[in-house]
Structure formats: C-alpha cells, structure tokens
Amino acid sequence: MIGKESSLQNFNIKAFQKDLLEWYYANKRDLPWRKDQDPYRVWVSEIMLQQTKVDTVIPYFHNFLEKFPTVHALAAADEQEVLKAWEGLGYYSRARNLQHAVREVVEHYGGQVPDNPKELESLKGIGSYTKGAILSIAFNQPEPAVDGNVMRVFSRVLNIDDDIALPKTKKLFEAITREVISHEDPSSFNQAIMDLGATICTPKSPACLICPVQEYCQGYELGVEQQLPIKSKAKKNKKMPYAVLLIRNEQGEIAIEQRPDDGLLANLWQFPMVPIQEMSVELIENWFYAQYGMRINLGEKQADLKHVFSHLTWELNIFHAKLEHDTRKEEKIVFVTEDELNSYPFPVSHLKMREYL
User: Fold this and answer.
1) 326 DSSP β-pair partners
2) Per-residue pLDDT tens for 166-204?
3) Are residues 149 and 22 in the same domain?
C-alpha cells in the first residue's frame, strides 16, 4: 500500500484547497439540506443519500422534514409512519436506525445532536462517513467524510491504486483527507469534494478538461484517470425465485402480510410470497395451505418482475389468486381494501405490483 506520507509528497495542499474552494463557492449545487447547518437536517440528508441519487432524495427530504421537522418529532413518531415516509427509498434499515438513534439523542442528549466524535459514532447507524459529514458540515470541525466519491477523487489526484473495496484503503483515504482538509472551512471542503466527484470527477468519462484541480491531478497527468480507482468485484449475486400472490377474498379485499421485525425489509408489508424452485400450480396452492391454513385458487400469471438487492436478486412471478376456504389459526395475513393499501409501507418491488391488482 502507498503510505499517506509518500502520497502527499510534493503535493501543494494550500493551493489545492484554495482552487477547490473557490470553484465550490462559485458552483456549489443548490441542495435543500444546504440552506443552513442544522445538524438534524444534515444527518437526515446524509442517511438518505447513502446508496441513493441526489435527485431521488430531494422530494423525500422535503416530505420527511415536513412530517418530522425535529429530532423530538421523529423520536415520538410511530415506526410504520416513518417507514411509510421512507417508502420507495430502499435500504429501510437506514430509517429504523435513524429513528432509534434520534430517540437516543432525545433521551441522553436533551435533543441536541452531539458534536463529539465518540458520542456521535456510538449512535445506531452512524459510521465513520456519517460521523465525519455531520461534524464537518454541521459543526465545521476538520473531520474527514470519506465515501466512494472522495476515494475516487483522491485516488485519481494522488494516483493511488489500492483496492477501495478494502477497509484498510478507506483508512488510508481518511488519513489523507485529514491532512488535506481545510481547517478554515472544513464544511465547504468536504462538500466541495462530494460535488467534484458527483459532477466532474465522475466514475466514467470524468470531465478533466474543466476540473478546477486538474493541475494537481497525477492520474490525469499520467493518463490513468479512467483506470482509477481500483475496485475488486463484489461476490456473485444470488437469485431467489418467488411466486407473489395477489389474493382477493369474496369481498374483493386484498391479502397482505407484514415481514418479520428483523432482517431484509423488516416490518414492511408485502403481498404473500411463495419460494419456488419449480412452477407448479398445485405445489404453490399446497405450500400456501400448509403455511397459512388458507385454500386458494391460483389464477393467471400477470407478469414477471426482478428486484436486485446488493447481495441477491428476487425473481418475482406475479399471480392473481382467489381465496376459497379460510381455516387460519393465526392472523399472519390481513385483508384490506385497495384504498387501505395506501396507509401501509411497502418495498419498491411490491409497490410496482399494485398495477396488476
């Protein structure tokens, strides 16, 4: 691994800061969470922005802050209401962890988001990146906030070819950022690197010719900017086939069930899903009766959908079905009207299925 010292040898930190910040002050993106430095707003935006594009986040951010304008409002809210406000953003554990952490802030810190690194990182769902983003952006502390954007920028600027998928490489970039960050305006510096990575130093076809820090970029000078950063391939995605059943009872109501309270998509609602290896009508109907105590009549297949998670892919075969006989001992499944569906939080894949009802 290239060490921090050798990476920064002959690197003009002051000039780099000056050119980067001047560019940022003139060109910074107009984003709603930049209206002020309220730590709660910064926190919500950073959690939403993990694994989600900025354009997608903006309407969710407005809606979420309207519903839960303060830490106290979010702490007091019902979890289902929070999940409903998050519906469609994905990675729902982010929302649950955020609410859990906000309750800790209300209980232990009197509703004030802590500005101490150790206290902040002890809160659920706050890792080194989110901690650095809150401390720098909201509290103007010279803390690194290193994500994929930042590693991409610095791997090119400093010509570092260490694998960014490895935790030790992230530590290297945190050490480098700590050295390079502006102490006069750390809030703008970290946001400037983020904006540079999002708009100019992009993953593919970076706009090097208009880059404000091009003269410092070793990757550009050597013509290797397109090869950087180096990232090893993730594990192969596992495929899981399901039959998803849009079941109606005699009253025309639709069957839904709540997912378990831990694991993937915890506590969200869905249409019943049958794990399948082979597509036999009889097998699906029998499995469903054994699992739920409900006899159904499987109808026509409506569509196929794929939903890709980071580690697996759901292959979803959507069927209409009719409830024939109900001998349930447990109320795992509830029947609701189409209008009532709107008050339940669903994962994206199941939201898409509503057009087939």
Assistant:
1) 294
2) 999 999 999 999 999 999 999 999 999 999 999 999 999
3) yes
C-alpha Rg value of the chain to the nearest Å: 24
Write out pLDDT tens, residues 201-228.
Answer: 999 999 999 999 999 999 999 999 999 9
221 part of the active site: no
pLDDT at 4 over 70: no
Given 139, 172, 195, the domain boundary residue is 139
- Residue 5 within any structural domain of the chain: no
Residues 310 and 279 in one domain: yes
Q: How far is CA 41 from CA 71, 102, 274, 334, 357, in A?
A: 9, 12, 40, 36, 38
The one catalytic residue in 5, 46, 315, 330 is 46
* Burial bucket for residue 287 (CB in 10 Å: 0-12, 13-18, 19+): middle
The residue range of the domain holding 337 is: 238-356
Same domain membership, residue 147 and residue 135: no
